Amino acid sequence: MNIGITCYPTYGGSGVVATELGKSLAEKGHKVHFISYGIPMRLNHLRENIFYHEVEMSNYPLFEFPLYSLALASKIIEVCDYEKLDLMHVHYAIPHSVSAYLAKQILKENYNCKMKFVTTLHGTDITLVGLEPSFLPLVKFSIEKSDGVTAVSKFLKEKTIINYQINKEIEVIPNFVDIEVYKPKEDCVFKSHFAPNGEKILVHISNFRPVKRVPDVIKIFYEVKKKIPTKLILAGDGPDRTECERLVRELKIKNDVYFLGKQEAVVDILNASDLFIMPSQSESFGLSALEAMACGLPTITTSVGGLPELVVHNETGYIAEIGDINRMAKYAIDLLTNPTKYKKFSESARKRAVEFFNKEKIVKQYEEFYQRIINE
Ligand code: GMT
């Protein structure tokens, strides 16, 4: 197949999923054309069958606000016409599915070209941004006009149907992880760097948006640290980072918390750590928790969104209510002080990632879905 993929190229789960999917499809012999305003962050090597088309933005002074959605539609038209795409796959509804719909209509009327497009819903496009009154009608329309729609969890599928009263089949295709890359590594060299005296290590990786509740991670750590020698690794960056740094200084735990900022060496960071903490307010899937599980880390998460579809309470990790810092700290202490239990949870976490969310299995589901849409 000849597939176009549009995603946000910056840090964030939807861009990661789109890029890893494109790389995997290319390895399987499909031609993949990424169309975006920047090169996706995990597309950092030259690869066979992968092409990148940058959306050109006009900086004409009259356009006080960049016309990205229109520029993207134009680029999709150009790529689809020249490259004869079989299908466009857009990740994150806003504005990508609207641009794809516009491109589809223009290709049909002016280029005699029938382009089909699939929209994958990732989370905040449905649960947060899409619900803003200025976007809601557009999101509903472009989802219903997509030739195929997928959601990354059952939760997100149901939320979409209820919130937008969508009258459309939505296929659940969960996120995935490359289990050959994300795997447990014994004796990670970075462990002693972060924990020179053999302390345990809690880790959190996110975009530090309010929805991730990163200050809760710090408060959980503070409670755990009272009972056992522990360090905290915080990787990623975003709006709440300054507030988190302030909190760390206020709690006088500056020497025990590592703010790493945006990092590419996620596998090394996870392998240096013992427990992954995700106390989110909202999470349609929780891709970074899956990456942690694949590396054999038990996870402590909230019970929101799609997290209970990923984490099995009392087996691969623990689930608690939003903001229940004491309970999450108790769970962490329980696991970190019980080596037999920890080992069992760690093995179960890896096993679940391998069995249900491995790249081979999920990419095949996308291929079959594409084929079905193309044949309809
Ligand atoms: O979490 C974010 O704010 C980023 C967002 C994205 O679009 O990159 O993440 C969403 O998509 C990820 C990939 O499907 C999911 O793993 C995240 O759970 C989801 N985030 C939320 O629902 C808050």
Quick take:
The chain has 15 helices and 13 strands.
Global morphology = elongated
Please count the beta strands (DSSP E, at least 2 residues each): 13
Instruction: State the helicity in percent bands.
Output: 40-55%
Provide the CATH topology of the largest domain: Rossmann fold
Supply the CATH superfamily name of the largest domain.
Answer: Glycogen Phosphorylase B
Distance N terminus to C terminus? 15 Å
Structural class: alpha/beta
Largest sheet: 7 strands, parallel
| Known CATH architecture of the largest domain | 3-Layer(aba) Sandwich
Low-confidence segments, ≥5 residues, pLDDT <50?
none
Summed over residues and divided by their number, the pLDDT gives a mean of 95
Please, could you describe this protein's structure?
The protein has 376 residues and is α/β, with parallel strands linked by helices. It folds into two domains: 2-176 and 358-375, Rossmann fold, CATH 3.40.50; 191-356, Glycogen Phosphorylase B (Rossmann fold), CATH 3.40.50.2000. The chain has helices at 13-27, 68-83, 96-111, 124-127, 136-145, 154-164, 189-194, 214-227, 241-250, 266-272, 287-294, 307-310, 325-336, 339-356, 359-375, and strands at 2-6, 31-36, 50-54, 87-91, 117-121, 148-151, 171-172, 200-205, 230-235, 257-261, 275-278, 299-302, 317-320. The strands form two sheets. The protein has a seven-stranded parallel β-sheet with strand order 3-2-1-4-5-6-7, sandwiched between helices. The radius of gyration is 21 Å and the shape is elongated. It starts with a strand and ends with a helix.
